[in-house]
């Protein structure tokens, strides 16, 4: 099976949303020093994913209306970039993705405890926010995250002020936390492990064959490397959002999170140099042309349409 066939299959299975992929595309370009893109460059980079030019233009201006993207007019041309708040949110999310999902009671933890000082509605909103920051719910009123997160640049600033949210914050050793979880003090929290594990298995089936092609010289073109980085990033983020990120002591031995993480890092890092070259080639070609004309898509697949705004 060729690289093109694998990519086609990935697109048909994942059905990525245009707004999400646009934000990922801009963040990828920023990582390689391209902080802004002419509209023509954005179109040329996105069309191989199967999106129509008209849909891309519409999605970009909708994102601009929601202040997720900034679009500046330069005569007849439009220069696009992520809004600072969007760029910061995407960068922070990327740094959390780079942290392996494996956790255990052999490390130190930060815990946040709801002692009943806030309303149920407010706690529900706070808990939702904390779960997006990779806290796990060990009990109905107890959220936890490894203390090692604080050492990660960009992640420490995500640590909410416990006083602001009405939660009690403690730094505890893993052994202490494990002992507390064996007691009925906090109660139990049920998680849907089967659904999350199935997502990881689907991710492996979809992307593991592509990771094996990395060792074959010339098997992946520059354009395909760029597409792979977008798709594997999109797919792995989807898995992580469903992962309860529990300590491994609470997980089955067949849990696929670390295998999926290794596939993600192998593809995302292994395609970096080629993806950078593709972005630079496309942006240079559009800039040299002096007008935002789009390159014809090289991969044939069903055209996709725009969608509603998805938060990064």
Give an account of the 3D structure.
InterPro entries: PaaX-like_N, PaaX_C, PaaX_trns_reg, WH-like_DNA-bd_sf. Residues 38-83 form the Transcriptional repressor PaaX-like N-terminal domain. The chain is α+β, with helices and mostly antiparallel strands and 312 residues long. Among the domains are: 108-172; 193-273. Helices cover 51% and strands 11% of the residues. The protein has twelve helices and seven strands. It has helices spanning 3-14, 18-31, 39-46, 53-65, 84-97, 120-132, 162-165, 174-181, 193-213, 222-242, 257-270, 272-289, and strands at residues 37-38, 69-74, 77-82, 109-113, 136-139, 142-146, 168-172. The strands form two sheets. Strands 5-6-4-7 form a four-stranded antiparallel sheet, sandwiched between helices. The longest helix is centred in the middle third of the chain and has 21 residues, at 193-213. It is globular. Mean pLDDT is 84; it is low at 292-297 and 299-312.
Helix content: 40-55%
Biggest sheet descriptor? 4 strands, antiparallel
Spatial shape: globular
**H/I helix tally:** 12
Q: Gyration radius, to the nearest Å?
A: 21 Å
Helix-strand makeup class = alpha+beta
For the secondary structure, the number of strands is: 7
Spatial order of the strands in the main sheet? Answer: 5-6-4-7
Percent of residues in β-strands: 5-15%
Q: State the end-to-end CA separation.
A: 33 Å
* pLDDT averaged over residues: 84
Catalogue the unreliable spans.
292-297, 299-312
Order of helices and strands: HHEHHEEHEHEEHEHHHHH
């Amino acid at each position: 099976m060729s690289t093109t066939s694998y990519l086609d299959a990935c697109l048909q299975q994942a059905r990525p949303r245009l707004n999400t992929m646009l934000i990922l595309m801009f963040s990828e370009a920023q990582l390689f020093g391209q902080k802004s893109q002419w509209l023509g460059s954005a179109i040329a980079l996105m069309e191989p994913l199967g999106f129509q030019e008209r849909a891309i233009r519409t999605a970009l201006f909708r994102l601009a209306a929601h202040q997720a993207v900034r679009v500046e007019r330069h005569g007849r041309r439009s220069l696009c970039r992520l809004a600072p708040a969007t760029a910061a949110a995407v960068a922070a999310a990327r740094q959390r993705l780079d942290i392996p999902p494996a956790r255990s009671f052999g490390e130190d933890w930060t815990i946040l405890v709801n002692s009943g000082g806030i309303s149920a509605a407010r706690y529900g909103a706070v808990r939702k926010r904390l779960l997006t920051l990779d806290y796990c719910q060990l009990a109905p009123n107890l959220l936890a995250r490894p203390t090692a997160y604080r050492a990660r640049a960009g992640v420490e600033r995500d640590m909410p002020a416990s006083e602001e949210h009405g939660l009690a914050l403690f730094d505890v050793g893993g052994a202490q936390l494990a002992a507390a979880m064996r007691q009925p003090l906090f109660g139990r929290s049920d998680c849907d492990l089967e659904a999350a594990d199935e997502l990881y298995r689907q991710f492996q089936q979809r992307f593991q064959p592509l990771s094996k092609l990395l060792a074959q010289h010339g098997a992946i073109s520059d354009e395909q490397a760029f597409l792979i980085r977008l798709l594997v990033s999109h797919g792995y983020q989807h898995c992580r959002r469903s992962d309860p990120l529990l300590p491994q002591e609470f997980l089955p031995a067949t849990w696929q999170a670390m295998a999926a993480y290794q596939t993600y890092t192998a593809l995302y890092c292994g395609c970096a140099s080629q993806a950078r070259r593709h972005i630079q080639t496309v942006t240079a070609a559009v800039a040299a042309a002096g007008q935002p004309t789009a390159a014809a898509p090289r991969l044939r697949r069903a055209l996709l349409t725009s969608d509603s705004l998805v938060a990064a």
